[in-house]
Amino acid sequence: MEIIAIPSYRDGGLNELVHPKFGRCDSFTFITLENNEIMEVKVIENSAADESHGSGTLAAKVIKKYNADKLIVSKLGPNASMALDSLKIKTFQAPGRKILIKDLLDLYLKGKIKVTPSENLILDKL
């Protein structure tokens, strides 16, 4: 069994778009898979989204709290990257385009999304 977390907009779920911002997403869609079959889809509000700072680190704790062992995400801040690494959550690179969560999950199940060290997902510093 595996639990995958994906940053999502508003109500989340399989028919929602993937949110490009990890720490500031509206919600996380958690998908429980067993033998590549969806067993459960759960949407949890991102309680870290409105924090003035540290949202990425707090969002990583939300991911861990709901037992996800994998995260599919576009980009991360450096603190979020370190937090995910310390929590032993594997990160996977989401495409940099608008995509529905169900389509992203399909790509994952087909092996077209590979594990990526979280430091490779860090946003470029401005």
CATH class category: Alpha Beta
**What's the gyration radius in Å?**
13 Å
Determine the fraction of residues in helical runs and give it as a percent range: 10-25%
Q: Per CATH, what is the topology?
A: Nucleotidyltransferase, domain 5
**Tally of separate helices:** 3
**Overall spatial form:** globular
The CATH homologous superfamily? Dinitrogenase iron-molybdenum cofactor biosynthesis domain
CA-to-CA gap between the ends? Answer: 39 Å
Mean pLDDT: 92
Strand order of the largest sheet: 3-2-1-4-5
Structural overview:
By secondary structure, the chain is of the alpha/beta class. It has a single domain, classed as Dinitrogenase iron-molybdenum cofactor biosynthesis domain (Nucleotidyltransferase, domain 5, 2-Layer Sandwich). Helix content is 23%, strand content 25%. The chain contains 3 helices and 5 strands, in the order E-E-E-H-E-H-E-H. It has helices spanning 55-65, 78-86, 101-109; strands at 2-8, 27-34, 37-45, 70-73, 90-93. A 5-stranded mixed β-sheet has the order 3-2-1-4-5, with no helix packed on it. A hairpin with a 2-residue loop joins strand 2 (27-34) and strand 3. Helix 1 runs parallel beside helix 2 (78-86). The longest helix has 11 residues, at 55-65. It is globular. The chain starts with a strand and ends in a 17-residue tail after the last helix.
